[in-house]
Structure formats: C-alpha cells, structure tokens
C-alpha cells in the first residue's frame, strides 16, 4: 500500500520546529537515538543501515519517520513518526529525543505536528503510542497531548490512545 509520495517526502513546518526527512549528514548526531525493531545503533554504520531500512519502510508505505528540527538552529533534536497500523487507517506514534533537549518543549511541538499530519493529511482514525510504565516523562508528554491510557501490555509497557475532541 503506497500512502506517501516517493518523490517528495512530506515536511511539516511549525512555529518552533519542523518535521523533515533525516539526511545522511544527520546520522552521526543521531546514533544515540537511532533504533530499528527496538535495537539501538552502536555506531555510524549501524545507524546508517537502520536509516536505510526506515527509508525503505517509508517507500513501502509502512511508516514515516521524521527528524525534529529546531527552526532557528536547524539542528535535529529528536525523531518521531508513525511506525505501524497505517495500512488499517491508524498509526502507532513513537518518538525519541536527544538528552540535551529534554524538558524544553521540543517533543511536545514535534508530536503535535505529527498528530495534526496524521489526522489531517493521512486521515488516520486512531493514533496510539506505547511506552514503559516507568517512563514518567513520556507518560506526561502523552497525557499533555490528549492521550489516555488504554491498556497494560506485556513487559511493563502501557498503551495510550489519542482522544479527539469530536470522538
């Protein structure tokens, strides 16, 4: 299922941050937050290989993975995207932030843009996220973005679902 244009990766611009495609030049700065199938990259080569898989997933219509860029510095501060469920009109939203940007509102801004894109552009009917039950900052972020806890999952994870105003 092809959900995305292959020739024009969707960039989403907000007041403070933008969501954009991760470039090869960004990879070295993102090693610490580069993951694929819950495995973390340990070096530039692994991070680049993971990004190549992520790029292929996008081309296959299975996911969309953005870098969250500060509009003033143009630095990538984190990543977010939809990683599962798009073929069913829903999406699992995930995110990771570089530690030096914790507590500064970047992820709230980035995730807000991703949520809007998911609802308005992709037409998603359901958006959910999962996090470890001990990840207090992620839980607070999701609650701030109007997600509510819907399930306790195996291995100590909890699932949250976006509650839309009109639902």
From TrEMBL:
InterPro entries recorded: Acyl_CoA_acyltransferase, GNAT_dom, N-acetyltransferase
Domain of life per record: Bacteria
Keywords in alphabetical order: Transferase
Keyword Transferase: yes
Gene3D superfamilies: 3.40.630.30
PROSITE patterns: GNAT (PS51186)
MF annotations from Gene Ontology: protein-N-terminal-alanine acetyltransferase activity
GO cellular component: cytoplasm
TM ranges: none
Boundaries of every N-acetyltransferase domain copy: 17-167
Protein name: GCN5 family acetyltransferase
